[in-house]
Amino acid sequence: MTATIIDGNQLAEQKRSEIKKRVDELRQRGIEPGLTVVLVGNDPASTSYVRGKEKACKAVGIRSEVLRLPKETSEEELLNHVRRCNEDPRVDGILVQLPLPDHINEQRVINSINPDKDVDGFHPISVGNLVIGNPGFLPCTPYGIMEMFRAYDISLSGRHAVVIGRSNIVGKPISLLMQREHATVTMCHSRTKHLKAFTKQADIVVAAVGRPRFVTADFVSPGSVVIDVGINRVESGKLVGDVDFEEVKEIASYITPVPKGVGPMTIAMLLHNTVWSAERKAGIATGSGNGVLT
Ligand SMILES: Nc1nc(=O)c2c([nH]1)NC[C@@H]1CN(c3ccc(C(=O)N[C@@H](CCC(=O)O)C(=O)O)cc3)C=[N+]21
């Protein structure tokens, strides 16, 4: 059996068209949603992601602005820029592109973002809301993955999900979200012993390790769902995930490709969060912004 490939590009396109309608409604009320992306330094990967975000904003009618700061920017200067955005009424969402240069304390910068504009969902207030199940911003990558499950009718209830990686931006939040949908979640990481023994008995594997083709066929059992969060640029210049796609697709029931899998959904959910922020400010937001229905 060969797996169904979850089409992140197509889903993201669908999301963008829904988002565009909401932007049009805001515009009819004289509101233009705005996103500010702060980019420190000129790392080529970061520069390219930021360009992707600008393009996506443009496609749906969100005003986007990129603050490009030199890599020597001090933490204090960066904090001042964030403060200015916090107060600027035209800015509904603030995204500080990570990673930041070593001389800047990332958490301090994240903590300084106005939680009402935290479209990345990285602020401790957003994290706390997620843990408790309160309305709030969800981090874009985990949110995008949950939307993929929904679109493909992949049920999580009672199923065993194994997450590889425990980062604040992917591993921890996706674990919480899958638990919220009644999965039994095991979190594995770099110190986990007998990793394969866990992934082998998983119904769902989420790979967020940052190692090219780390998850091979012998890690997964037949019929499992495999979500690949990795984006690794290998020597050839090719983009590969944390999963050995060619091998694993012969065993899994569903698999996300890289590229065109989780990446485009991450950007789509950033647009969603930005529009939700503007709607909430206008007092016309429906839903809780984070997929909590009850
Ligand atoms: N504050 C912050 N928020 C982020 O959301 C954030 C960040 N920092 N730092 C870096 C990571 C990475 N990230 C990606 C988003 C989309 C693609 C994406 O769309 N990738 C395309 C391919 C792009 C290409 O070809 O290079 C795909 O997978 O099909 C990739 C990577 C967001 N990040």
The overall pLDDT, averaged over residues, is 96
Oligomer: single chain
**pLDDT < 50 runs, ≥5 residues:** none
Q: What would the principal axes of the Cα set say about the shape?
A: globular
Distance between the ends: 37 Å
- Global structural class: alpha/beta
* Number of structural domains: 2
Helix content: 40-55%
What share of the residues does DSSP label as strand, in percent? 5-15%
User: Quick one: CATH class of the largest domain?
Assistant: Alpha Beta
Reported by name, the CATH topology of the largest domain is: Rossmann fold
Catalytic activity: (6R)-5,10-methylene-5,6,7,8-tetrahydrofolate + NADP(+) = (6R)-5,10-methenyltetrahydrofolate + NADPH; (6R)-5,10-methenyltetrahydrofolate + H2O = (6R)-10-formyltetrahydrofolate + H(+)
Protein name: Bifunctional protein FolD
Pathway: One-carbon metabolism; tetrahydrofolate interconversion
GO molecular function: methenyltetrahydrofolate cyclohydrolase activity; methylenetetrahydrofolate dehydrogenase (NADP+) activity
Chain-wise SSE layout:
Layout: E1 4-5, H1 8-28, E2 34-40, H2 44-60, E3 63-69, H3 75-87, E4 93-96, H4 106-112, H5 124-132, H6 140-151, E5 160-164, H7 171-180, E6 184-188, H8 195-200, E7 204-207, E8 225-228, E9 232-233, E10 239-240, H9 245-248, E11 254-255, H10 262-282
Parallel strand pairs: 1-11, 2-3, 2-4, 5-6, 5-7, 7-8, 8-11
Antiparallel strand pairs: 9-10
Helix pairs in contact: 1-10, 2-10, 6-7, 6-10
Bound molecules: 5,10-Methenyltetrahydrofolate.
5,10-Methenyltetrahydrofolate (GUE) is lined by residues 48-49, 52, 95-98, 120, 140, 231, 239, 258-260, 263-264, 266-267.
